[in-house]
Amino acid sequence: MKNRYAILIISIFCLLISGCKKDFLNVTPLDQYSEEGVWKDPALIQSFVNNIYLGIPHGFSALMLSSCADESMAVWDWESSSVTKCLLTPSYLGIFDIGFWTSKMRYITWNNSFKQIRACNLFLDKIEGVKFDDQVLKDQLTGEVHFLRAYYYHQLTALYGGVPIIKQAYKLDDDFLAPRNTYDECIKFIVEECDKSATLLPATLTGANKGRASKSAALTLKSRTLLYAASDLANNTTWATGFSKPEILGYNGGDRNARWLAAKNAAKAVIDLNVNSLYKSNPGPGDNISTNYGEIFLLKETSEDIFVRFIQAQYENDWDNGNPGLFNGPNGWHNWGGNTPIGQLVDDYEMIDGTRFDWNNPVHKADPYKNRDPRFYASILYEGAKWRQRPADVKELDPNGIVQVGFYEKPGNVIKPGLDTKKSPIEDWNGTSTGYYLRKFIDPTVDAQYFKQEVPWRFMRYAEVILNYAEACIALGQEPEARTYLNMIRKRAGMPDIPATVTGQALIDKCRNERRIELAYEEHRYFDVRRWMIAPQVYTDAKAVNILYKLLPNNTTSATPTYSLSTVQQRAWKNSHYYLPIKLDEMNKNNKLIQNPLY
Predict the structure, then answer these.
(1) Which among 586, 572, 585, 581 has a CA at the least distance from the CA of 599?
(2) Choosing a second label site near 509 at 20 to 30 A (CA), which of 170, 184, 404, 470?
(3) Residues 6+ away with beta carbon under 8 Å from 434
(4) Residue at 352 is within a domain
(5) pTM of the predicted model, to two decimals?
(6) pLDDT at residue 10 tops 60
(7) Distance (Å, rounded) from C-alpha 228 to C-alpha 260?
(8) How many whole angstroms from its chain centre is CA 48?
């Protein structure tokens, strides 16, 4: 009897399943959108584009790109020294590997960039067949995606040289194997994408659209791309000894003067839009010039902003993201002191009269942080700098909030460390090895030990455009025009004009140093030292300053310390590292790829 009932129940269940099988297997999932659904809904399409933006990493990670160049060193290293010692290989990309957990640099390289390019291609394949009630929105999104595709290809070309140009989203039955295009083809494609974007986008954006691409952003990306293409690295492939495909690395000939002219014109096109300007470009007698410069990186919006993304205040399970104060502030404030400026960067901040700082000058050495470029005080924390109030458990030791990276010698040769040294009595597991901390980007009104600041990362700002224009003018022999624009930057910074007597290589050096100081830590230097081919000269051992006070028998401190220099990190250069290696996995997957030279 029991068996009879069981058979009946099973039979009924089978009938129900067979009758409803079609509907049962075609239930729409409730936790995700179908591809067909996305391309019918303008709101979902906009969300799709938003996700492509998120593939561009901002610079506020715990490990910054500055620590891979001659700007800073990471106190924890985290394999950044593999870059500064040129130890990368196709089998070991270190912090540039997609699997490396502490570095946002992994997102600018091959895997992520091509992933985002595929999303751009998918959008451009689909968008023409989508009906929009708002044609302006459709054009804007299309322009943004052309910009984003150009942006990712610019990243790839700057890091690798020529890469495969893929213009469609691959399907499962497509041939995925593609050779590398020439450098020239990549530059032309990026420029075409920027031009398409610029025709579809408004010159600037307001309200909720701030942070999206604009015409100004598209033209700025074009300016940056063409500047790189006119620079030394793209026009000199002799460093790649015996490489069979030099056209992948740069140009094999042609009119370099025309390339510089294209770079100049691209920068001038941004200037002529007249939608951006230098923030507080004409400081008055009562202005605090250091404060003016520092505000550019703390305010939510300035006249210089071209392409900006706001970094949210809180990230769940994302501890190494978006917290510049905690990551880089001094350990005597319970911060991590992460990407500490090296002596080479600090020494390149000029004196207030425009002359170079020099440790061999006895006046400079006696008081090295006096009368320096005002941007120094907005960018660097140094011995004796006034910072913010100390935390409650430290305030008694320093009620005035003064940075202490020096040491104190007691009678009997007993050394007492300052509160912000690597041997600090507050925290001795972090702390600077160079005698400096980063101040730029850090809001002193925020207690970074407990709170994240809400601050935007500026991917592009107007000062870069001015510097691009000046550099191209110098290369074209238009030195008076170059000085005029360089002096705009220097006037805002409270620095004297570059005089007409500075010409030739001296003017090139001035321009390069101006870019180094104005754009410090903004992810330009890594690429600049490569495209100028000065990496062999600047990837030298990182320097530190050592500061020692004498504690007198009455327990008072000597009025002035003594300063000495030392090496704190060994560095080296290999020409292979002008470009990154293509990861061995990618080479194995695509037999049409050619590895970069000297790996």
Answers:
(1) 581
(2) 184
(3) 73, 340, 341, 342, 343, 542, 543, 544, 545, 568
(4) yes
(5) 0.93
(6) no
(7) 10
(8) 24
